[in-house]
UniProtKB/TrEMBL annotation:
<dbReference type="Pfam" id="PF08240">
    <property type="entry name" value="ADH_N"/>
</dbReference>
<feature type="domain" description="Enoyl reductase (ER)">
    <location>
        <begin position="12"/>
        <end position="347"/>
    </location>
</feature>
<dbReference type="InterPro" id="IPR036291">
    <property type="entry name" value="NAD(P)-bd_dom_sf"/>
</dbReference>
<dbReference type="InterPro" id="IPR047109">
    <property type="entry name" value="CAD-like"/>
</dbReference>
<keyword id="KW-0862">Zinc</keyword>
<protein>
    <recommendedName>
        <fullName>Enoyl reductase (ER) domain-containing protein</fullName>
    </recommendedName>
</protein>
<comment type="similarity">
    <text>Belongs to the zinc-containing alcohol dehydrogenase family.</text>
</comment>
<dbReference type="InterPro" id="IPR020843">
    <property type="entry name" value="ER"/>
</dbReference>
<dbReference type="GO" id="GO:0016616">
    <property type="term" value="F:oxidoreductase activity, acting on the CH-OH group of donors, NAD or NADP as acceptor"/>
</dbReference>
<keyword id="KW-0479">Metal-binding</keyword>
<keyword id="KW-0560">Oxidoreductase</keyword>
<dbReference type="Pfam" id="PF00107">
    <property type="entry name" value="ADH_zinc_N"/>
</dbReference>
<dbReference type="GO" id="GO:0008270">
    <property type="term" value="F:zinc ion binding"/>
</dbReference>
<dbReference type="InterPro" id="IPR013154">
    <property type="entry name" value="ADH-like_N"/>
</dbReference>
<dbReference type="InterPro" id="IPR002328">
    <property type="entry name" value="ADH_Zn_CS"/>
</dbReference>
<dbReference type="InterPro" id="IPR011032">
    <property type="entry name" value="GroES-like_sf"/>
</dbReference>
<dbReference type="InterPro" id="IPR013149">
    <property type="entry name" value="ADH-like_C"/>
</dbReference>
């Protein structure tokens, strides 16, 4: 284990190069700081995308990983929500300004004064933020969340990005038990959480995919029905039936019209996917004739994180995970790239 102010991390060193184990210095300690011994870290598509510089240049060395679960080892004077020995986790956001209108309203995930992301970002001190492919993490207590007693760390880890990304928008979407019909586009790491949360909220849930490949697994996850968007019969059967679509993934050939056709009037199309290409244009009549609402959502606010963890604990929501040793991270990433996760990989220290 590394010394007090350093972490032993698996860092990206250059685009296309394997991750390399190295010692890096943690951010400066302050009264808001929490130290975690990382026990688990999920692998998110964002990690791989950042290492590949898919959204823009990456400042290497870069320690990715923002589905962190661990044990608190030290807390600063201002820390009120966790204590030494608590099991706790961290998601994609590690800091905010705490002064802007959004922060003051408890929507720190859309802070306008300076978000610190868990990696590929800088603290106000100028220190680089370092993610969870490491033995230690240090950051702001306001983005550290206690893990409920009935959720283990290995299960908890992936809630902190994939979980909150799908839970937060669904929890804001006025889902009515027994009445709402939620389509989940993309049955993968995010989508498999979306299915479980929407079911937990009492909706009827329909998986939407582009082939027959996920039909069986969608059923296993608890979906009530399945739409292969390439299948005319499926599209006709579900025409104008969905109150919500949660888009967790789509392809560059994505067409709005296909999905608007599935929606009931006044339906909500909620996008949480983050592709590196632009969405196509849409026909204005397709949008207005059904009074479709389109919205986006990114991660979630701290209060939503707490709500999600409680919801998951109460409803026994469980991600499907496969574990890799932290030291096997390069193999895990290789398998991730090959599209093998069913549905989330978790690195274990
Ligand atoms: Zn993520
Ligand atoms: Zn702010």
């Amino acid at each position: 284990m590394s010394a007090e102010n350093t972490t032993t991390a698996w860092a990206g060193v250059a685009n296309g190069k394997p991750l390399t184990k190295m010692e890096l210095t943690l951010k400066q300690w302050d009264d808001d700081s929490v130290n975690l011994d990382v026990t688990h870290c999920g692998i998110c598509g964002s990690d791989v995308h950042t290492l590949d510089e898919g959204w823009g240049p990456t400042d290497f060395p870069c320690v990715v990983g923002h589905e962190i679960a661990g044990v608190v080892t030290k807390v600063g004077k201002n820390v009120t929500n966790v204590k030494v020995g608590d099991r706790a986790g961290v998601g994609a956001q590690s800091g905010a300004c705490h002064k802007c209108e959004m922060c003051l309203d408890g929507q720190e995930n859309v802070c306008q004064g300076g978000i610190v992301y868990t990696y590929s970002s800088k603290w106000p001190s100028g220190d680089k933020s370092l993610g969870g492919y490491a033995d230690k993490w240090r950051g702001d207590y306001r983005f550290v969340f206690k893990i409920p007693d009935n959720i283990t760390n290995e299960i908890a880890a992936t809630f902190f990005c994939a979980g909150i990304t799908t839970f937060a928008p669904l929890s804001r979407a006025n889902i009515i038990p027994g009445k709402s019909v939620v389509g989940i586009m993309g049955i993968g790491g995010l989508g498999h959480f979306g299915v479980q949360f929407a079911k937990g909220m009492g909706a009827k849930v329909v998986a939407i995919s582009q082939s027959e490949r996920k039909r069986d697994v969608a059923k296993e996850l608890g979906c009530d029905d399945y739409i292969n968007a390439q299948n005319k019969e499926d599209m006709e059967k579900h025409d104008s039936t969905l109150t919500h679509i949660l888009c967790t993934g789509n392809g560059p050939d994505f067409q709005w019209r296909t999905y608007f056709a599935l929606m009931k009037p006044n339906g909500h199309f909620i996008n949480v996917s983050a592709p590196d290409w632009d969405f196509p244009g849409m026909n204005a009549f397709d949008l207005l004739s059904k009074q479709i609402h389109i919205s986006g959502s990114g991660i979630g606010a701290p209060k939503e994180m707490e709500k999600m963890l409680q919801f998951a604990a109460d409803k026994n929501i469980k991600p499907w995970i496969q574990k890799y040793k932290m030291d096997d991270v390069n193999q895990a990433i290789k398998d991730f790239r090959a599209g093998k996760p069913r549905f989330r990989y978790v690195l274990v220290n």
